[in-house]
Amino acid sequence: MPDAPKPSSASPSRLNPDLGEQHDVVEIHAALQREKPEPQDGFEPINLWLVALTGGLLFWGGYYLANFSGRFEGNEYSELPHGQATAVAPPETPEQKTLRIGAQLYNNCAACHLADGAGNPALNIPPLAGSDWVQAEGPNRIIRVVLHGLSGPIKVNGTVWQGNAMNPWRKTADNPAGLADEEIAAVLSYVRNSWGNKGSFVTAEEVKAISEATKTRSDPWTEAELLEVPVKGGSAGATAPSITAATNAPVDLASLKAHLQELPPDQLKALLEAVKAK
Ligand code: HEC
Predict the structure, then answer these.
(1) 3-class secondary structure, 170
(2) Is the CB of 128 under 6 A from ligand 1?
(3) pTM of the predicted model, to two decimals?
(4) Nearest atom (ligand 1) to Cα of 124
(5) Would residue 166 count as lying in a domain?
(6) Which of 224, 174, 184 is nearest to 205 (CA)?
(7) Is residue 38 part of a domain?
């Protein structure tokens, strides 16, 4: 009997024909390994990049709103400054400006009279707050005090102060750190309208007129001298002599008129008032 071909599992046979299939073990396992495990619920860790991105977006969003939201106001495009859609803040008035400058200049005086104008009894420095000199109807006397200083006893609100003296503030070549006419006006306006004080504003013209009229003076004033000066009106008798001369002479109306026109306005006004009073 001829040897029948042995059936073999390893080689193709008629009983186990190889139909072109390849059984590559490695390939089969690779396919298995690619399979994912079944998904399951649980507290899976969040991707940190996602956290960072979300945080970044929130921060940017807040920043954007803070800067470009227009405050969520309907008047965002109004030309007026914000919060002033209905009423614009009024500009500083000349009085407010004078008081602001005067307050700064008062630093010069505060060293002695103190910031609240209360004076300093320990150093014999009288108060400006509530002072009858400061609140006199006109500033003629206190302008002089600031221009040339003050010494000797002085009665303020019924109390006599003495033992100290006030330095002159008039700006001169010898006293370059002094105050100009308009600065004296501003500081006295401030003093006359602070700490409850009430008084008219002092103008640079008033200070100038008195400063001119007392140009040659270098001594500080005394109370007695000051009391002779009328508190208000004109430059307080300072340049009156030339008027007296004019009126004592046989009156030449033309020259009198020319003379009057040369007078500073406040002196002219005071003169006219004096004439009217007669
Ligand atoms: C060095 C200290 C000193 C400084 C600075 C000074 N004063 Fe005086 N002031 C005095 C003294 C002291 C008296 C009183 C003088 C006396 O006893 O004769 C006085 C008196 C006065 C008076 C009259 C009296 C009264 O109390 O009302 C006025 C007004 C015044 N000072 C305003 C000023 C102003 C305004 C300034 C600033 C520009 C100023 N003083 C700066 C020391 C000072």
Answers:
(1) strand
(2) yes
(3) 0.62
(4) 12
(5) yes
(6) 184
(7) no
Residue with the larger pLDDT of the pair 121 and 12: 121
Residues 6+ apart with CB under 8 A from 193: 99, 199, 201
Distance (Å) from CA 128 to ligand 1 centroid? 8
Q: Which two tokens stand for residue 112?
A: 């002695």
Mean pLDDT of 115-135: 96
Identify whether 58 is part of a domain: no
Asked if residue 145 has its Cβ within 6 Å of ligand 1, the reply is: yes
Q: Which residue's alpha carbon is nearest to atom 40 within ligand 1?
A: 109
Q: How far is the CA of 217 from the centre of ligand 1 (A)?
A: 18
Measured at the alpha carbon of residue 209, what is the angle toward residues 205 and 212, in degrees to the nearest 5?
135
Q: Does residue 197 lie in a domain region? A: yes
What is the pLDDT confidence band of residue 137, given thresholds at 50, 70 and 90?
very high
Residue nearest to ligand 1 atom 43, measured at CA: 166
Give tens-digit pLDDT for 170-187: 999 889 999 999 999 999
Please identify which residue in the block is written with the tokens 């003495």. 162
Q: Is any atom of ligand 1 closer than 6 Å to the C-beta of 127?
A: yes
Pocket test for ligand 1, best of 145, 195, 211 (most atoms within 8 A of CB): 145
Tally of domains within the chain:
1
Range of the domain at 229: 94-238
Instruction: Calculate the average pLDDT of the chain.
Output: 84
Residue 262 identity: E
Q: Which atom of ligand 1 is nearest to the CA of 187?
A: 35
Instruction: Find the CATH number of the domain harbouring 227.
Output: 1.10.760.10
Give the pLDDT of residue 204.
Answer: 95
